Structure formats: C-alpha cells, structure tokens
C-alpha cells in the first residue's frame, strides 16, 4: 500500500474498496486499516454501518453496494425446500441453523419440508454429524459446491442465513433477484441493508424469532406476498444506480 503512494508521482486519485465488514477484524488490524485508509482519496464500502465508522474517524468514503440484475421470476407453486448457501465455516453459522430446522419440523404443517445446504468447507463433517445427532439425515441435504446456482434458486422456496457476521452478503441479493423470500439473523452489517423486515423477508434477532419467521412462510399468502415484494430490490440495487455512483468518483 505504501509503495503505491510513493510511486504515485502524477498525483492520481487513489481509491480503494473494503468488501469485508470492518467489525470482523481484530483491534490491531482495524487500527492499521484506519491509519492506511486515510491515505486514499476515497474509500468505497458496501454498507452504511462501515461508512459511518469511517466517517467517525474522518476518513472520506462512499457507500456503493454490489449491483444486482433482477430476474422477474414469478413463483407459482411451493416446493417446501429451504436453501442455505455458503462456506461451511464458523462465520456462516450453519451449526445454529440445524437446531432451528429440527424445531421447525416439530411444528404443525411442516411435513415434507427439506433443507438444502450448498457449499463446502472444513466444518462439513462436523455439521453432518450434528445433523445425524438431531435425526435430520433425511431432512437435510449437503450439496457441496454447486455450479448451477440459478437452477437451485428456482427450485427452492426460501433462503435462510444464520451468519455470525457479514459484509454485504451476495447470496441474499442473488436469492431476492430470483424472487425468493429470505430469513437472516440481524448480524453486524449486511442483512439489514438488504431485507425490509416483514416486507420481502425477515430479520431475526435470535433463534426463536428465526423459527417464528420460518413458521410464517408455511402460509402461502405470506410467502407469495413477500416474493412479489422482492421486486423493490431491482430498484435499490439496479446496475444503473450503482454505475452512476461509481462514475461520481471519477
């Protein structure tokens, strides 16, 4: 980073991007980041929370989200398949999802529901063991890495996210681009800026509210209403809107 500044003899504008939540770093790493980020002409961040943090330390920044191409996919039937996507690591919190799924299946009108988990990682064996201990072997499918995500989004009913922290999770945007209602833990940064609670998805403060949100999606009227409401995402994260923000930096 420092070499870039020393070699910048023509005094060009130097802009950097921070695509990981600043909250996720240890104190010393954050200290170094804040020190070095002051050297740039502008810092691009993905979330309002990170923008406010940088502004607090008088670091010039702009929030520019990832763009989204909305698919205008119309959901007409229920498949009773919930989808979770991500690396099978501690951050993604799949160990929190499995007990919630177990409790969901004990409720009325949940016969026939399945959970697909797409992704791979170091926690896979541990999660498969956890699913077995909860008697979920026939109710949870670990898909590993999936190359055709669009087909999976179309096949599944809802997207579930139990991450402990995020930046701006693309999986939420991608799911909503396919008119898929979502549920996510209201973790630091990310989900709150994508989900309008009780409009096009649910933000859960804990496992109990996550379970209640899952229960709500067994109601067809609620489900299809929220699916239609995802179209607002097309406006908020449109390629045209995001492109204008990038051009404003030039």
Automatic annotation (TrEMBL):
Record-annotated Glycosyl transferase family domain positions: 78-231
Annotated InterPro entries: Glyco_trans_1
Keywords: Transferase
Biological process (GO), any one: carbohydrate derivative metabolic process
One function term, GO molecular function aspect: glycosyltransferase activity
Name of protein: Glycosyltransferase
Organism: Klebsiella pneumoniae
């Amino acid at each position: 980073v420092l070499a870039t500044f020393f070699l910048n003899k023509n005094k060009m504008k130097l802009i950097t991007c921070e695509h990981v939540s600043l909250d996720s770093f240890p104190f010393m790493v954050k200290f170094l980041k804040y020190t070095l980020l002051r050297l740039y002409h502008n810092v691009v961040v993905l979330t309002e929370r990170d923008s406010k943090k940088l502004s607090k330390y008088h670091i010039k920044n702009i929030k520019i989200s990832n763009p989204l191409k909305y698919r205008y996919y119309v959901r007409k039937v229920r498949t009773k398949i919930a989808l979770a996507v991500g690396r099978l690591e501690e951050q993604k919190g799949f160990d929190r999802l499995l007990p919630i799924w177990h409790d969901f299946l004990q409720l009325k009108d949940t016969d026939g529901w399945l959970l697909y988990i797409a992704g791979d990682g170091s926690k896979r064996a541990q999660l498969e063991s956890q699913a077995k201990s909860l008697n979920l072997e026939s109710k949870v499918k670990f898909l590993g890495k999936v190359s055709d995500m669009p087909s999976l989004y179309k096949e599944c009913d809802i997207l579930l996210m139990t991450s402990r922290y995020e930046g701006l999770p693309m999986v939420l945007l991608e799911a909503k681009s396919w008119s898929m209602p979502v549920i996510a833990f209201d973790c630091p940064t990310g989900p709150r800026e994508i989900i309008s609670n009780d409009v096009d998805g649910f933000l859960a403060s804990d496992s109990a509210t996550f379970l209640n949100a899952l229960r709500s999606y067994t109601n067809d009227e609620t489900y299809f209403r929220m699916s239609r409401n995802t179209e607002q995402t097309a406006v908020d994260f449109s390629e045209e809107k995001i492109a204008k923000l990038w051009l404003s930096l030039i």
